[in-house]
Design a protein that fits this description.
The chain folds into 5 domains: 30-79, Complement Module, domain 1, CATH 2.10.70; 91-142, no CATH class; 156-204, Complement Module, domain 1 (Ribbon); 217-263, Complement Module, domain 1, CATH 2.10.70; 266-324, Complement Module, domain 1, CATH 2.10.70. The protein is 8% helix and 40% strand. The chain has helices at residues 2-22, 270-275; strands at 35-40, 43-48, 52-54, 60-66, 69-71, 76-78, 91-100, 103-112, 116-118, 122-126, 129-130, 140-142, 156-158, 171-176, 180-183, 187-191, 194-196, 201-204, 217-219, 232-237, 242-244, 248-252, 255-257, 261-263, 266-267, 278-280, 287-288, 293-298, 302-303, 310-312, 323-324. Bound molecules: 2-acetamido-2-deoxy-beta-D-glucopyranose (3 copies). It is found in: Virion.
């Protein structure tokens, strides 16, 4: 097997050498005028004059005469200019120019093949070299591990910009619309080309109906038929009534939460006082708000002592002391 390969190889080699020997007569003029040449048989060795370099590579080159034409002969470019676009694995570099500060800047625009995406969008020419930070292999990277845009979730949006490709290990976060509540994890990750842990759902939160009435009180604002989740309504009590608890109710998951009560005032009744043989210690209002203190004195006799002469109004209830002779 090995021997056969060797023989074949030898045959091809001898054939080519026979061929090239047969060719003569390539022109010695019409080269780039900045090209310095030295001809030897059907070979031409060349370099560029100072301040110039061959277009493709190195500082000298070799051309061969094939069918009356020099094959491999190059033109010269200025030393500080960039050469042709390099071969970019899995993509292509397109030569172009941009204007920068009134100067023409040579550029290579990167165009990656299908299934690859560009890590670098363009290369610039600097001091006669394509300014490449890293390897040419790193320009067009395979999309194999990339994820396509994350899937739609009903009643949700994603809080980062839309992209066609998401690199491995990138993450996106969903956000439910108002009045929807999230079930599952909001953030998903791109792992080996797939979005992982997509278990998110946005469930509608039921609204609340008319807020409950408050005894001896009312809402501060006009009421509506429906309230959304987290909406709050403020209550107040009638005058002389005192509120116990925070004045707010909140619609949470379709239910009104928050508790308050309007505590009644006490009214001091003249007739009742007369019956108990008492009167007010000092003339004052006959309306007491909850928790207010009032003091009585006897109109006849002495206090029976079972009820103190100082009393506190407790949610509309006021206990009267009694005096007797
Ligand atoms: C070159 O690449 C390295 C890492 O890859 C980066 O930190 C640096 O900023 C790059 N330099 C330029 C000029 O882009
Ligand atoms: C409810 O409202 C509070 C403050 O207004 C806010 O911080 C909270 O995130 C809201 N919750 C929901 C589930 O909308
Ligand atoms: C008020 O005083 C009179 C006279 O002493 C007495 O007869 C009456 O019982 C007293 N009232 C009460 C409720 O004790």
């Amino acid at each position: 097997m090995h021997a056969i390969t060797k023989i074949l190889f030898l045959c091809i080699c001898s054939l080519t050498s026979v061929k090239s020997q047969a060719i003569t007569g390539c022109p010695t003029t019409s080269f780039d005028r900045r090209l310095k040449v030295w001809q030897h048989g059907d070979k031409l060795y060349f370099r560029c004059e100072d301040g110039y370099k061959p277009l493709s590579k190195g500082w000298w080159g070799e051309a061969t005469c094939v069918h009356g034409v020099w094959s491999g002969v190059e033109s010269c470019i200025e030393e500080q200019k960039c050469r042709e676009a390099p071969e970019i694995p899995n993509g292509e570099g397109i030569l172009g120019n941009t204007e920068q500060h009134g100067q023409t800047q040579e550029m290579i625009f990167i165009d990656c093949n299908e299934g690859y995406s560009a890590k670098i969008e363009e290369l610039t020419c600097r001091d006669g070299r394509w300014d490449l930070n890293g390897s040419l292999d790193d320009i067009c990277k395979s999309n194999h591990d990339n994820c396509s845009p994350p899937p739609k979730v009903e009643n949700a949006v994603i809080t980062t910009c839309y992209r066609k490709q998401y690199p491995s290990r990138s993450e996106v976060t969903y956000q439910c619309f108002d009045n929807y509540i999230m079930e599952g994890k909001a953030t998903i990750n791109c792992i080996a080309g797939e979005w992982k842990e997509l278990a998110i759902k946005c469930l509608q939160i039921p609204p609340c109906g008319i807020p409950p009435a408050l005894e001896d009180g009312d809402t501060k604002t006009a009421i509506k038929e429906h309230y959304s989740h987290n909406e709050t309504i403020e209550y107040m009590c009638q005058s002389h009534y005192i509120m116990e608890g925070e004045p707010y109710k909140t619609c949470l998951y379709g239910e009104w939460t928050g508790h308050m009560r309007c505590l009644r005032p006490c009214i001091v009744n003249e007739d009742e006082m007369r019956q108990h043989n008492i009167t007010l210690k000092s003339s004052g209002t006959k309306y007491l708000v909850h928790d207010e203190i009032i003091e009585f004195r006897c109109t006849r006799g002495l206090s029976t002592g079972t009820v103190a002469m100082r009393q506190r109004c407790n949610s509309g209830v006021l206990v009267l002391p009694t005096c007797r002779e």
